[in-house]
Design a protein that fits this description.
The chain has about 170 residues and is an alpha/beta fold. It is built from four helices and six strands, in the order E-E-E-H-E-E-H-H-H-E. It is globular and about 45 Å long. It binds adenosine-5'-triphosphate and magnesium ion.
């Protein structure tokens, strides 16, 4: 806990854990998406957040990922080892499937051979073999989400944030 009520801090914590303490988020238009929210996730734990549309689930995940800043409260998570699957696939339309999946490894400047291996594994794991050279526009909605999933898996992060990643997939693929 920190005493500064006007800012969110992201203190490094034990790898794989997430601690959200008294977090609120009010947008500039006055919409309060979150109020006094607490959440603790231990390493190895799988937590599902359930609630009606618009109740603040995506907002909470974005705050944990550091994509948005809370109005009050504190968040402790190791953001150096964090994978995020957005509610929509959020692929770069000009990059092939392979290049999209490879992006996090490129940004982390991993050597080419290591990148190749990690990307191969993520593509195989998500059933995308044979589609590596396709552009996102040539994929189905479910395939795009699988590319997004593969991209999040590539660096084998300790914390995964999934924002309804299986919504576009049929039950069996899910
Ligand atoms: N950038 C923003 N500016 C203003 N209001 C926003 C913004 N982002 C989200 N909101 C509002 O915050 C509330 C929570 O939105 P959020 O996307 O977190 O909901 P959700 O629980 O993920 O919903 P869904 O299940 O439909 O994805 C909603 O009322 C939404 O309109
Ligand atoms: Mg949402």
């Amino acid at each position: 806990m920190n005493g500064d009520a006007m800012s969110t801090t992201a203190a490094p914590v034990s790898a794989g854990s997430v601690t959200v303490h008294q977090v609120s988020r009010t947008f500039p238009d006055g919409t309060q998406a979150l109020a006094a929210t607490d959440l603790t996730v231990q390493p190895g734990e799988l937590v599902t957040i359930v609630g009606p549309s618009g109740c603040g689930k995506s907002t909470l995940l974005r705050l944990v990922a550091g994509l948005d800043e809370a109005t009050t409260g504190s968040i402790a998570v190791d953001r150096d080892s964090l994978g995020y699957v957005f509610q929509d696939s959020s692929l770069l339309p000009w990059r092939t499937v392979r290049a999209n999946v490879e992006l996090p490894a490129q940004l982390h400047r991993l050597p080419r051979s290591e990148r190749r291996q990690l990307v191969d594994e993520a593509i195989a794991l998500t059933g995308l073999c044979g589609f590596e050279r396709h552009l996102p526009r040539a994929l189905s909605g479910g395939m795009k989400m699988r590319v997004s999933l593969a991209r999040a898996l590539t660096l084998r992060p300790r914390v995964f944030l999934f924002d309804e990643p299986f919504g576009a997939l049929d039950e069996i693929t899910r």
